[in-house]
Specification:
- The chain has 293 residues and is α+β, with helices and mostly antiparallel strands.
- The chain has three domains: 46 residues, Uridine Diphospho-n-acetylenolpyruvylglucosamine Reductase, domain 2 (2-Layer Sandwich); 111 residues, Uridine Diphospho-n-acetylenolpyruvylglucosamine Reductase, domain 3 (2-Layer Sandwich); 114 residues, 2-Layer Sandwich (Enolase-like, domain 1), CATH 3.30.390.
- Helix content is 33%, strand content 25%.
- Strands 4-5-10-6-7 form a five-stranded antiparallel sheet. A four-stranded antiparallel sheet has the order 11-12-13-14, sandwiched between helices. Strands 1-3-2 form a three-stranded parallel sheet, covered by helices on one side.
- α9 packs antiparallel against α10 and α10 crosses α11.
- The N and C termini lie far apart (52 Å).
Length: 293
């Protein structure tokens, strides 16, 4: 299928991009385009103006400011994977990015696009939420900061308002005693879409779990935080969370109970729920192992 005609813009600055977006009644932003261009070709979407972000400086940069990682919205997944800063301060983000699609797609697809597409099976969202990430959103009226956990409104719907651009993702650098892991299940070894995924973060001091977060992907309309699982873990000695222990099993079940899976071509809701419990336990075990490291 042919793409319908549109005006293509390549602004040099963020302010220019915002002006174009404000002036266009149905303008759409293009970063990597691995989702948008497919939708345009298939006739699922049609836009008069396509505004590329590829020439805007700093949108494709990764930096450290004080105790925070700053990830530009146009950073590609392979940039995440190979960034020395990501590897040094939060390697689990690189590990999650490694599970996405293929090498060719990771060279083009961006972290901002992965978040703004807001597919429930997005791979970067669960781990970034588990790490307490925030996002910085800009418009002609100014800027605002939002917890990433609050960014997703529904499947393929975000809190972005008309005329706004996601500029960067802000990730607190995990303090000592923190472990995090991302586990994903797909139907094939490569280029797989998540049937279910779970990210886990635990923070330990003096043998006690001080904080924890479990986030599910592909088993609810949006990435979902499991309050039930965190409540089981926080305040407990990590000795009670060893693999195979009663509490370890309860954590997996609590995460699965907070899921809202559907039946589709990739698996039934019941299958997804069971897989989610298994992934949660694996992620917890890996995260605790990293604390010990």
């Amino acid at each position: 299928m042919y793409v319908s005609d549109f005006r293509y813009h390549r602004p040099e600055t963020l302010d220019e991009a915002l002006r174009l977006l404000e002036a266009s009644p149905d303008g759409v932003l293009l970063a990597g385009g691995t989702d948008l261009l497919v939708d345009l070709k298939q006739g699922k979407r049609s836009h008069q103006d396509v505004i590329s972000l590829t020439r805007i400086q700093n949108l494709n940069a990764i930096s450290v400011e004080q105790d925070r990682l700053l990830i530009g919205t146009a950073v590609t997944h392979n940039q995440l994977i190979h960034s020395p800063l990501i590897r040094a301060h939060c390697r689990v983000i690189a590990e999650a990015a490694e599970t996405i699609a293929t090498e060719q797609i990771r060279n083009t697809a961006t972290v901002g696009g992965n978040l703004c597409t807001a597919a429930s099976c997005a791979d970067t969202a669960p781990i970034l939420i588990a790490l307490g990430a925030e996002i910085e959103i800009v418009s002609r009226q100014g800027q605002r900061t939002l917890r990433l956990a609050d960014f997703f409104v529904d499947h393929r719907k975000t809190a972005l308002e008309t005329g706004e651009i996601l500029r960067r993702i802000i990730v607190p650098i995990p303090p000592q005693g923190t472990g995090a892991a991302y586990q994903k299940f797909g139907l094939r070894q490569a280029a797989n879409i998540a049937v279910a995924s779970v990210a886990a973060m635990v923070r330990v001091a003096d043998g006690m779990c001080e904080d924890a977060c479990f986030v599910m992907g592909a088993v609810a309309p949006t990435p979902r935080v499991s309050a039930g699982a965190a409540g089981l873990v926080v305040g407990r000695p990590i000795s009670q969370l060893s693999e195979g222990s009663p509490l370890w099993k309860q954590v997996g079940r609590a995460v699965a109970d907070d899921a809202e899976p559907i039946d589709d071509i990739r698996g039934s809701g019941e299958f997804r729920r069971e897989i989610t419990a298994t992934l949660a336990r694996r992620a917890l075990t890996m995260a605790l192992g990293r604390v010990r490291e």
